[in-house]
Task: structure prediction
Amino acid sequence: MSQIVSEIKCPNCGAQLNLSPGELVATCRYCGYTSVVGANTPFQLEHSLILNNFDNSRITQDLQEWMRSGFMKPGDLAKKSRTSMIELRYLPFWLVPLTATSSYEGVLERIAPATPRKGTIQNEYDWLVLGRRASEFPTRDYKVPTQGKIPFDFTKIEPQAKFLNSELDSASAIMHAKDEVEENQRFLLKQEVDQVTKFDTTFNVQQPTYIHAPLWFIQYEYKGKIYNAIIDGSSGSIIRADIPQTDFKMI
Result:
């Protein structure tokens, strides 16, 4: 598989595409052209870029400030921790705009007497799907700052950054979005009924946007153990960070 992929060239400029096995949507690092691997038609979806606004020093400073603030953290965390890895990665996301309309029938049992109910739950979503299959990323904790997106420009990508192509095409991203949104609709249904007897969801899906966003991945060491943190390269906000366990003694 890797040998076949390595022979693929950019359909726009002819440069060799730097692809890993499993990647389906490729962006040329020479001309910035985005194409679907094996497709004979041009890439029609909008490809956007979120700009990175921070360097290693500032990201390390933001992590240190997080370590000093809040509750449930060791008092010496900022002083005694050591950053062992810091890497800027541009991750591929699909932003799928859709409307979900769920019709349901069920029984409300929490209030006596039990009452049959039926109705409709309709919501509009801009659902975010990570374009990597095996990666663990807290997608639901991350809101892509779409107000700051620009048309994709490969010259804005830092040379030292790790750039990842998508392993999902738009059709697969839409399927993922539908599955996750339907699960969310079922969660919302728990507010209406306790026992579900009928549930059906229809979708109105608009054209997805393909986005690359900058995320800083950090590992830090504290008392011999390794912990992870992810920081938004656009805003500098902590998306998720591991907190070492602390034993609080009662006085």
Notes: The two ends are 62 Å apart (CA to CA). The mean pLDDT is 89. Residues 220 and 227 are 5 Å apart (CA to CA).
